[in-house]
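Hi V.,

You were right to ask for the full record rather than a summary. Here it is.
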Amino acid sequence: MIVLGSLLILGIVLDRIGLLNPAEGGIFRIFEPVQSAFVRIGQGASDLVQTARDLGDLRQRNQQLVELVNQLAVENVRLKEVEAENEILRRLLDFAQSSPGHTFKAAEVRTRVIGRQPDNISQFILIAAGSNDGIQAGMPVVTERGLVGRVETVYPTLSKVRLIIDTNSAVSALVQRTRATGVVKGQPGGELVLDYLPQGQDVVAVGDVVLTSGAGGGFPRQLVIGQVIEIRQKDYEMFQQAVLRPTVDFDRLEVVLIITNFVPLSLEGLEPAPGTSGP
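Predicted structure:
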């Protein structure tokens, strides 16, 4: 203890008279590498902490970007739906404006109903318009592509529409090119045929367009029904048939138009079979 004290006092005295300066330089030169190493270690630790902090910020920013992308994706889907709906409504509006003789009521298609009966398959759609909207049974239903069917049963806010591909549907029709007349009827499986055409080579041909004739007063004239894709002809039969491809895509109906200023003259002979008029 006495020796340590003496060395301490000696060190103080030597420092006061300046004799320790060379020794200090030597000591600093000896420990400089160690000091530099500690500085580098400290700087590395500081950089590591900053990198970890930056990584955390980057992850947070990345999460925000992911959420933004998800929001934009949802918005993009919504805008595409709006665009598709606007395109449908635009086409319907163009059709309505090109048919000034009719008054139309637009209605959303809620669902398609395929009801099996013992002897056939009934095909309907339910639309979001009913007696509260002035809809009545017998009113024709169309799109800009052609004839869909006609209203059969009316409720306050809904109506049931029998499609022309229904087996109990019958529409007076004519071949646009030759003016030959017949009756368009639905067949099991959704097929559509123009029946009761008179025999003859040039009465009907593949590619002919078929329209409503207005005969019998069941539908307005000149509504497009479909296009002939096949002729069924047998020499021993009185009539020939033409298979039609409907211009309306019944699997993709979203919005339809009801012709509200047309009242059928008679529904006799076109009424559904007993038991098929329920919802």
